[in-house]
Design goal:
Structural class: alpha+beta
Strand order of the largest sheet: 1-2
CATH topology: Glutaredoxin
Mean pLDDT: 91
Distance between the termini: 22 Å
Largest sheet: 2 strands, parallel
Shape: globular
Low-confidence stretches: none
Helix content: 25-40%
Oligomer: single chain
Number of strands: 4
Order of helices and strands: HEHEHEEH
CATH class: Alpha Beta
């Protein structure tokens, strides 16, 4: 996801990484160790995760330009592969 974010961020692509249930210091160290460049937000009390029925990680929600959810994927995916890049490019078209 980080590679995808770096490739598309200048074209309007926004990536939010949501951490569920951990404290800020643990998350800060993980972000640094993994080299994340996207915005990381904390859901320490799991209120947002529960509202969106996140039962496993990673869970990815894909929104279009109108902020409508157009997809959901549970589990690991190769988002930086060609199918992922094509999907993001198509969603970023005006």
């Amino acid at each position: 996801m980080n590679a995808l974010y770096e490739e598309f961020k200048g074209r309007g692509f926004v990536l939010l990484l949501v951490n569920m249930g951990e404290g800020s210091e643990i998350v800060r160290r993980a972000v640094k160790a993994r080299g994340y460049s996207a915005t990381v937000v904390l859901d320490s009390d799991r209120e947002v995760s529960d509202a969106y029925v996140v039962t496993a990680t990673p869970t990815v929600y894909i929104l279009n330009r109108r902020l409508q959810i157009v997809g959901r994927a549970v589990g690991r995916r190769d988002w930086a592969g060609e199918p992922g890049r094509r999907l993001i490019a198509a969603l970023l078209k005006p």
